[in-house]
């Protein structure tokens, strides 16, 4: 997995999978949330990758080009140039439209607006989970069976988290709380440690817990 650094986010990219396997970004409270620049009209090949996945590889597939680091959040906090970078193909995975435009979008907007206003600052990690034998789009891009999102907030001298696991067929109008999970479950599915620098004991406690409610 190679780390690709962008203005407003970083991505862990797998050439073997021709896909990002995680992305991470930070949101903070803004006194005045700016109107975002116009949404770019097209996605772009990321020349830093060997896979060189193309926007047209998704054409006719029935899947959206689902952002990992989101357009709106990065645009409002980092500006137009950073927004353009969210439209690199190294930042997208196949998502069913109901998920992309439903619960995934709802949680992205909370992370960009509501949570920073309430908690001052949060960190967000997102990514796909592919399963053992994923279907593939034209050109070889694998289709994840689910997408996950972990939000972190420093709270009263400690760290608290929300972890979500969204199957591709999650209904757009389902409650977010239905998809709360543990970080342990996510890590078991994706095969790597999201927080390797945490001391073992607090890491074990933090990652085993399922939040009782959505913030």
Mean pLDDT score: 96
Largest sheet: 6 strands, antiparallel
Helix content bin: 10-25%
The assigned structural class equals: alpha+beta
Count of individual beta strands: 8
Shape by Cα distribution:
globular
Hey, roughly how much beta strand do the residues contain?
25-35%
Number of helices: 6
Report low-confidence residues grouped into runs of 5 or more.
none
| Run of helices and strands | EEEEHHEHHEEEHH
- Spatial arrangement of strands, main beta sheet: 1-2-3-6-7-8
Give the N-terminus to C-terminus distance in angstroms.
32 Å
**Gyration radius over CA:** 17 Å
Question: Can you describe what's shown?
Answer:
- By secondary structure, the protein is of the alpha+beta class.
- It contains 6 helices and 8 strands.
- It has helices spanning 71-78, 80-85, 97-100, 103-119, 183-190, 200-208, and strands spanning 2-5, 10-14, 19-28, 64-67, 92-95, 121-129, 146-155, 158-167.
- Strand 2 (10-14) and strand 3 form a beta hairpin.
- Helix 1 runs parallel beside helix 4.
Task: Describe what is shown at a glance.
This protein is an alpha+beta fold. It contains six helices and eight strands, in the order E-E-E-E-H-H-E-H-H-E-E-E-H-H.
Provide the fold topology:
Blueprint (H helix, E strand, L loop, with lengths): L1 E4 L4 E5 L4 E10 L35 E4 L3 H8 L1 H6 L6 E4 L1 H4 L2 H17 L1 E9 L16 E10 L2 E10 L15 H8 L9 H9 L7
Antiparallel strand pairs: 1-2, 2-3, 3-6, 4-5, 6-7, 7-8
Helix pairs in contact: 1-4
